[in-house]
Amino acid sequence: MSKPTFFQIVKSVFSAFIGIQSKANRTQDFAGGSPSSYIFVGIGFTLLFIFVIIAVVNLVV
Q1: According to the model, what pLDDT value does residue 1 have?
Q2: Is the pLDDT of residue 43 over 80?
Q3: Which of 13, 17, 59, 60 could form a disulfide with 41 if both were Cys (CB 3.0 to 4.6 A apart)?
């Protein structure tokens, strides 16, 4: 199995983040990619989500 590209990792993490990733894609991710790349992208999505929530709250308040 070839190593996933950055955009494939982002797509996979985003799908998992919003809860729509299929079991087949999850299995493929664990077989082909390194865990550290998924962890770093996941942390980035989490920080982005937190900053968006803070921005929305500040706009409303």
Answers
A1: 61
A2: yes
A3: 13
Q: Specify whether the CB–CB gap between 14 and 29 falls below 8 A.
A: no
Alpha-carbon radius of gyration of the chain:
14
Contact 37, 9 (CB under 8 A): yes
In angstroms, the CA 52 to CA 57 distance is 9
What pLDDT, on a 0 to 100 scale, did the predictor assign at position 27? Answer: 84
Q: Residue 4 contacts by C-beta under 8 Å, 6 or more apart in sequence?
A: 12, 29, 32, 33
Of 54, 35, 56, 43, the C-alpha closest to 17 is 43
Cβ neighbours of 24 (radius 10 Å): 8
Whole-model pTM: value is: 0.79
